[in-house]
Write a structure and sequence with these properties.
The complex is a heterodimer. Helix content of chain A is 0%, strand content 46%. Chain A is mainly β. In chain A, 34% of the residues are buried. Chain B has strands spanning 4-5, 10-14, 19-25, 32-38, 45-51, 56-59, 62-67, 72-77, 86-93, 101-102, 106-111. The chains are: A mainly beta, B mainly beta. Chains A and B meet through β4, β5 and β9 of A and β4, β5, β9 and β10 of B.
Chain lengths: 114, 112
Amino acid sequence: GAGVSQSPSNKVTEKGKDVELRCDPISGHTALYWYRQSLGQGLEFLIYFQGNSAPDKSGLPSDRFSAERTGGSVSTLTIQRTQQEDSAVYLCASLKTGGTTEAFFGQGTRLTVV
Amino acid sequence: DQQVKQNSPSLSVQEGRISILNCDYTNSMFDYFLWYKKYPAEGPTFLISISSIKDKNEDGRFTVFLNKSAKHLSLHIVPSQPGDSAVYFCAAKKSSGDKLTFGTGTRLAVRP
């Protein structure tokens, strides 16, 4: 498809397990963001990839969170040893350049840690 | 440190009337501002944007106003329609290559 694709759309995991969330950005988009939205909260920035530059990881809440972007395309957000407070909708967005163009969001992955 | 603030968590307006959603920011380095709309169980969708060199941008029923001296922007929707009912997020960025910083959102309900 032409849009940003995220998988899975829903994930239920047990506390303490690791999870991987995937984002397929729009083809040709060089920049990619991860955000999360907890229940009743706004969009919390996690990490930003821009081309070959070092990613901006300033939003990652703990060292249990990591992300990579392989080949400048697909990105994976990994959460190790999940906790209940990690439950949220994780949103990925991509944009064509790092310039002032709008970011296009995927539908999100709803993560529930039980 | 909330650099982008939407102080009204919710707003209710009558169909056909104007909806005004407000957003304040603290970082004077922001120079590009965007509004996104979000329906439940969907990702945010881009609505309209404005560069800091402008004070107004209009697109159909949607107009964004920017007051740089007050570090304030607003989104006007006129006339409001029931399909406009959603959560609206204000976002800002400093420059090319910067991340988007979002506000906490305002839930708009348009009553038929």
